[in-house]
Write a structure and sequence with these properties.
By secondary structure, this protein is α/β, with parallel strands linked by helices. Helix content is about 40%, strand content about 20%. It has a seven-stranded mixed β-sheet, sandwiched between helices. Helix 4 links the parallel strand 6 and strand 7. The structure holds adenosine-5'-diphosphate.
Length: about 180
């Protein structure tokens, strides 16, 4: 589904983020930036060794922060690596840190002049964030961004599997 927010598009698709043709894709990385499982592993496998080389030069990334590298062999020119929170009980600043991961990724994209960006559902795999709560934060943060600014023309959520796609679609209908 696609919705228009001011001049920009918010889109939700079911699929694989490594296949996206947006200018940037976002990686749900870990602090070490050394690759890992889940979407992180998939991005490094598909994008090739240049991405890891640049990650090693950058060093580390704090939770809620974002850094940028080449997209290597991906269709996307850039990968924005952000670190979502590990979910404990929701009482350890997880909502704010997840919001920061989205905000800082969008801010970094904007500062690089990037017009289209694809996000996975950050923190909802190995990091254990409950999907509905994470979807609400992801979507609210993106919608607010697009309501305030029009420099990014397309924000696409690429949901892995039917369930995640359905949860995000339901949530977006509640929010707009
Ligand atoms: P985290 O450590 O932030 O929880 P994971 O990679 O474990 O990161 O999971 C984040 C989300 O990414 C999960 O919802 C998972 O289903 C999804 N995911 C895994 N592989 C892909 C992929 N190739 N494209 C898009 N999403 C993916």
């Amino acid at each position: 589904m696609e919705i228009k927010i001011n001049k920009s598009i918010l889109s939700l698709v079911e699929g694989d983020i490594t296949k996206q043709d947006t200018e940037a894709i976002v990686n749900a990385a870990n602090k070490s930036l050394r690759g890992g499982g889940g979407v992180d592993g998939a991005i490094h496998r598909a994008g090739g060794p240049k991405i890891l080389e640049e990650c090693i030069k950058i060093g580390e990334c704090e939770t809620g922060e974002a850094v940028i590298t080449t997209g290597g062999n991906l269709k996307a020119r850039y990968v924005i690596h952000t670190v979502g929170p590990v979910y404990r009980d929701g009482l350890h600043n997880e909502p704010k840190l997840l919001e920061n991961a989205y905000k800082n990724s969008l801010g970094l994209a904007s500062s690089k002049g990037i017009k289209s960006i694809a996000f996975p559902s950050i923190s909802t795999g190995a990091y254990g964030y409950p999907l509905k709560e994470a979807a609400e934060i992801a979507l609210k943060t993106s919608i607010n961004y697009l309501r305030e600014r029009d420099d990014i023309e397309l924000v696409r959520f690429v949901l892995f599997g039917q369930n995640a796609h359905e949860v995000y679609e339901k949530k977006v209908r509640e929010l707009v």
